[in-house]
Design brief:
two-stranded antiparallel ribbon; 19-stranded antiparallel sheet; mainly beta
């Protein structure tokens, strides 16, 4: 659920302003109802209030100054596990809320150096304040957070600042147009991110949550370099482009081996900051006009992580690089639209990508120290789920072109996942008769018809 409002004002011929504020909300609830005595609900919710003020000041014909500020307040229900009814034996468990205020100011200059060369440079300074009420642990210096390295537990009152992170972000980009049909672009920027996505795809119902940086979990940071070339064929029949990028990641949040991610009151004991890098190249062909129009693109990209913290006794994959869950080397997209007349058209969308990486159990062994059977897993993300493929089809009826009508409406009839492919959303494992059995779960693994109606005033 979200809401936003925007107000734009022209203060003078040179100065314009854009003001916006809004609210975003997301939540989920997973109910377990198979056994009455174990009936329970797992829930999570994130709420965000934000406000922005953006200004544009035209210094002269060659310089345009952009500047502004923003502020965003996070209020996260990190997790609640509760019984569904009075016959359930499940005990109520609730994680403490995450609250924080993120603010930033920025300034940038759009400079038209010549008729062919333009440069855009800017700096953004962001600040993140973790807010109370909150109770957090401190750990021994030089040791990884764990139940055996706890030094103290500290409580902070409501509205008090628990921890502050801050720092600058830089960006620089340039574009050079050789002529009206051929141009090149390049850019460099640094970035900071204070909220982390925590994904658990090894249970039947995947439960993605978001964790704010705190006293023990640092914000992510990194930099990216990108470049591209763009060419329009004579008559603007086709638009061709190729783009490439390289990204470096620091303090990316990943998981320790055998990590517990659901309802973990001290998540820092099961996650770890890692380093990473990503690179890729995308080729695109676009036909913008004519009865048959659309575009096709192919992307080759890779993303890798490594646990190089010297405090780790046994890092994942022995400290070597391993692919992230987002590492899907090949991605191909084809979008097309054929117009029978000005009002009637047929459109389709095809999407193919390499299956994402996953870690699978390869066997079991008896742990003499724990006196129980343990699961032996393969190297992190060394296997992949089946490739993803989806084809959508729709027939569209556009509005009439009578300018005197009060409203203009359009309607689309279509089928989502026309081939009914059961694309794997997650893989989970259960113990059955002493053996570990894996299952693939798909969502919308069947053709789904849809109708869309739009009305414009």
């Amino acid at each position: 659920m979200n809401f936003s409002a925007n107000w734009r004002s022209i203060f003078s011929e040179k100065l314009t302003g854009n003001f916006s504020f809004g609210y975003d909300h997301y939540d989920y609830r997973n109910d377990e109802t198979v056994e009455e005595t174990a009936a329970a609900r797992l829930s999570f919710a994130i709420n965000q209030w934000f406000g922005k003020a953006d200004f544009s000041y035209k210094i002269d014909d060659n310089h345009t100054l952009n500047f502004g500020l923003m502020s965003q307040f996070y209020n996260i229900n990190s997790g609640t596990y509760e019984p569904l009814h009075e016959n359930s034996l499940v005990r109520l468990d609730q994680l403490q809320k995450d609250k924080a205020l993120e603010s930033a100011i920025y300034i940038g200059d759009q400079w038209e150096v010549t008729s062919k060369l333009s440069v855009n440079a800017g700096i953004r300074y962001s600040m993140f304040n973790l807010m109370g009420p909150r109770t957090y642990r401190t750990y021994q210096d030089g040791m990884l957070p764990s139940s055996t390295t706890v030094v103290d537990s500290i409580s902070v009152g409501n509205g008090k600042v628990v921890k502050t992170y801050q720092g600058p972000e830089f960006r620089l980009s340039a574009r050079y147009a050789f002529n009206d049909d051929f141009s090149v672009k390049a850019g460099f920027n640094t970035m900071r991110q204070y909220i982390h996505k925590v994904s658990n795809t090894t249970i039947m119902s995947p439960t993605d949550t978001w964790k704010l940086s705190d006293t023990n979990i640092k914000p992510q940071n990194g930099w990216q370099l990108a470049a591209g070339a763009y060419y329009n064929t004579p008559g603007q029949m086709l638009e061709l482009s190729v783009e490439g990028y390289y990204k470096k990641l620091n303090d990316y949040l990943d998981y320790r081996s055998s990590a517990k991610l659901v309802m973990n009151h001290h998540l820092e004991t099961d996650v770890i900051n890692t380093e990473g890098y990503a690179y890729g190249v995308e080729f695109q062909v676009k036909k913008p006009s004519g009865k048959l129009n659309g575009w096709a693109s192919y992307t080759y990209s890779r993303t890798f992580l490594r646990q190089n913290d010297p405090r780790i006794a046994r890092p994942v994959n022995n400290g070597e690089w391993y692919p992230t869950e987002y590492d899907k080397p090949h991605d191909f997209k084809l979008v097309g639209n054929y117009k029978f007349t000005r009002r009637y058209s047929l459109s389709f969308n095809m999407d193919y990508s390499t299956g994402r990486p996953t870690t699978i159990p390869a066997g079991q062994y008896y742990d003499q120290g724990l006196k129980k059977m343990q699961v032996y897993y393969t190297d992190r993300n060394s296997y992949r789920v089946p490739d993803y493929f989806r084809l959508d089809l729709a027939f569209n009826v556009e509005p009439s072109h009578h300018l005197t009508l009060l409203t203009h409406s359009s309607i689309s009839f279509g089928i989502y996942n026309l081939t009914g492919r059961k694309n794997v959303y997650s893989i989970y494992y259960v113990s059955e008769k002493g053996k570990i059995q894996g299952y693939k779960m798909s969502i919308f693994g069947a053709p789904i018809p849809f109708v869309t109606y739009n009305i414009k005033f």
